[in-house]
Amino acid sequence: MVRLLALMAFLIMGAVASLAAHAAGVPKPMVKVEGSGQCVAATEEMRLNHMNMLGHQRDRTLRQGIRGEKASLIGCVNCHASKTTGSVLGKDGFCESCHSFAAVKVDCWQCHQPKAGHKTAGANGAAGAKQ
Amino acid sequence: MTEPNDKSRRGFLGVAAVGAAGLGVAAIAPGFHLIEVSQAGAPGAGVSNKVRWGMLIDTTKCASDCNACVKACNTENGITETVKDPRQGSQWIRKLDLKDPKSGLTHSLPMLCQHCEHPPCVDVCPTGASMKRADGIVLVDRHTCIGCRYCMLACPYKARSFVHIPLTEQNPEVPRGQGCVESCTFCVQRVDKGQIPACVEACANAEHNAMLFGDLNDPNSEIAQRVAQVKTTQVRADLKLNVGVRYQGI
């Protein structure tokens, strides 16, 4: 009986050890959060629901003209763009690092501007026209 | 896809009324509260069909050698790309020179999306991407647009363009990209902040003042008063689209 218990204990310990080793071996995405301050929601909620928040907000803003909502893609970019590249894309970019890890393709950036505070050549139409 | 929802708007007004009562703001008498209709759309509130945005273009003031409106549109909306075939370039607004062959009388005018009350582009869109906001601004929802270009065929004003190449230099407030149809938005990103479209501002800055933007539904607005006083023309009025852009002098 003692032998059996010892064997079981050994097996359980082995299983726990191998699980721990396994967990340590899983590669994790390198997400750099460079923006200071508070996000619009808790980290856990953002991780789970950011796509839903943005998806619903975009329809309300475009179709009903509701501006200034909590979630906005421009808001994401302004806070999370890399200090070095100015963008949320790129290898260490806030969006791309996690999305390439999870193999989830994002189409946002085919139309939306991934750089914070980006100004097109002579943007602010009126200022450009005065010159 | 979300359609303008009367129920939620009513809900908002209810909340606004309670808020006004709580703060004692705009209370005429106990139980009666004046809720002002904001033209620019207060934060959190959607646009209202009480507003009908429109434009009046005075062709007698528009100079044929001036394209300040086109330039301003391109910079405001980030239309900076060059395409191999000029026919494929995006044109949200373009200058036209008209000549009456009999009298030789010439006109110059900007042509843009006419923001119809009954837009053919919205009628034909197979996905519901082409849409009209409650305040009369006709837009393309690029999230839903599949780039079929049916709306380009349907538009009597040739107002829409298709983006043929990948883009990277968008203005953050004006997302645009390959594979979607696009057109003048009345600078909706500016209008929602209470500003006027970039072309109208540029026309005034160029001291032509040929373009006037405002709320056609507001009898006190300059545009409504001008439209009530002088004869204005809707291009292709025979189509009965009741356009939002009117021309004076053609």
Provide an overview of this structure:
The complex is a heterodimer of chains A (131) and B (250). Chain A has a domain at 29-117. The N and C termini of chain A lie far apart (93 Å). Chain A is elongated, with a radius of gyration of 23 Å. The model of chain A is unreliable at 123-131 (pLDDT under 50). Chain A has helices at 2-25, 43-64, 73-80, 94-102, 125-130. Chain A has 131 residues and is an all-alpha fold. In chain A, 53% of the residues lie in helices and 0% in strands. Chain B has 250 residues and is of the alpha+beta class. Chain B folds into 2 domains: 1-36; 53-248, Alpha-Beta Plaits. In chain B, 23% of the residues lie in helices and 18% in strands. Chain B has helices at residues 6-23, 68-76, 120-124, 150-154, 188-191, 198-205, 222-229, and strands at residues 27-29, 32-33, 53-58, 93-99, 106-112, 130-132, 138-140, 161-162, 181-182, 211-215, 245-248. In chain B, β4 (93-99) and β5 form a beta hairpin. The N and C termini of chain B lie far apart (40 Å). The A-B interface holds A 56, 58-60, 62-69, 74, 77, 110-113, 117-126, 128-130 and B 1-5, 41, 43-47, 68, 71-78, 80, 131, 133-135, 139, 141-143, 166-167, 169-173, 175-180, 187-188, 192-193, 198-199, 201-202, 205-206.
